[in-house]
Amino acid sequence: MKKKSQKKVLQQEASSGYLFMAPSLIILGVFLFLPILYAIFLSFHKVQVLGELSYRLVGSRNFSRILDDERVLMAFKNTFDYVIVVVPSQTILALILATILNASIKGRQLFRVIFFLPTVTSSAVLTLIFIWIYNSNGLLNNLLSHVGLPTYNWLGDPQVALKAIMIMNVWSTVPFFMVIYLAALQDIPSELYEAAKIDGANECDRFFNITLPLLKPVTFFVIVMGIIGTFQLFDQSYIFSNGSGGPNNSTLTVVLLIYQYAFKSLDMGYAAALALMLAGVILIVTLIQRRFFQNEKIS
Questions:
Q1: Cα dihedral sign for 35, 39, 45, 48?
Q2: pLDDT in tens, 207-264
Q3: 38 and 178 part of one domain
Q4: How far is it, in rounded angstroms, from Cα 84 to Cα 3?
Q5: Cβ burial, residue 33 (10 Å; 0-12/13-18/19+)
Q6: Would you give the DSSP letter of residue 79?
Q7: Residue 193: predicted pLDDT
Q8: What angle do CA 91, 95, 99 make, to 5 degrees?
C-alpha cells in the first residue's frame, strides 16, 4: 500500500508539473514548432501567394536551385566573413573589458553602466547613428582626416561596407557578453587566486591558469550565442543598403536574401529552403563548437 501511495504521489506531482508547463509548451508549439513544420512544408512546394493561396509539390527542386544561385554563394561568403571577424573580436574584447571592470578600479560601477548602454539601445537606432557617423562628411572621416589617416566611402565602397557593419556590431554586442563574463568572474572563488599568489604566481599566470580554464563553459556559451546571432545578421545590413544588400552585394547576408526572395520575389518555397539550409549550417557549426569544448573537458 505504501508503494502504491508513493507512486500515486509521484504521478500527481508529474501531472501538476505538466499542468504548470502547459502554457509555455503551448506558446512554444504555436510560435516555434508549428512555424518550423510549416517552413519544412513550404520548402518542398511552389507557393502561389497572389490571388488564391495554393501549393504545388516540387520535391527537392528548391534545394537544388540553391547550388546554382550565385547570390546564395555571395550571401554565404559575406555571412561567413562576418562571423569569422565579429565572433572572435567580440569574445576577446568582452573578456578584456570584464577583467578590467572586475578589478578594484575607481568608478567601475559608472563604467559598467556606460559600457552597457549600447546593448539596451535599439539596433535600428544604432544603425541610423552609425550611418551618420560613416557618412562621407561624417564624424569618422573627419576624425581620420584630422589625424592624417585616409578616409573611406564607408557606405558606398564594396571593399569596406561590410567592414563598417562589423565595426558597428562589435561595438554594440561586446557590452552584453562583457556582463556575462563579469558575472562569471565574480563567481570564481577568491581563495584560488590567494593560494596561487602565495605560490608565487603573477597576474598573468593566474589569468591563464585559473581564470581562463574556469571560464571555458561561459566562453562556450558566448561563442555559440555569438555565432547564432552573427549568422542571423539582417537589420543592420537591410538599413545600410536600403534592403538591396549593396553596394555590389557586399552587404548581402543570407537572412537578407531570404527576406528578398520571400517578400519581394514572393518565392516562399525557395526562401523556406534557404532558411532551413541556414539553420542546418548553424546547427553544424554549433555541434562542432560543442565537440571542441567537450574535448577541452567541458561538460
A1: positive
A2: 888 888 889 989 999 999 999 999 999 999 999 988 888 889 999 999 999 999 999 9
A3: no
A4: 58
A5: exposed
A6: H
A7: 82
A8: 175
Q: Count of H helices and E strands in the chain?
A: 15, 2
Q: Which three cell numbers stand for residue 94?
A: 568582452
Instruction: Show the cell assigned to 244.
Output: 538591396
Q: Are residues 243 and 96 in the same domain?
A: yes
Given 46, 61, 76, which residue is the final one in a domain?
61
Domain encompassing residue 130:
64-295
Q: Residue type for 259, please?
A: Y
Taking 70 as the pLDDT cut, the residues of the chain under it are 1-4, 107, 294-299
Last residue of a domain, one of 61, 76, 111: 61
In the chain, the number of structural domains is: 2
pTM, to two decimals:
0.85
- Report pLDDT digits (tens) over 283-295: 999 888 888 776 6
Cell numbers that stand for 201 in this block: 604566481
The per-residue DSSP string of 9-69 comes to HHHHHHHHHHHHHHHHHHHHIIIIIHHHHHHHHHHTEEEE-SSS-EEEE-TTHHHHHHHT-
State how far the Cα of 112 lies from the Cα of 175, in Å rounded to an integer: 9
Q: Contact, 227 vs 282, CB < 8 A?
A: yes
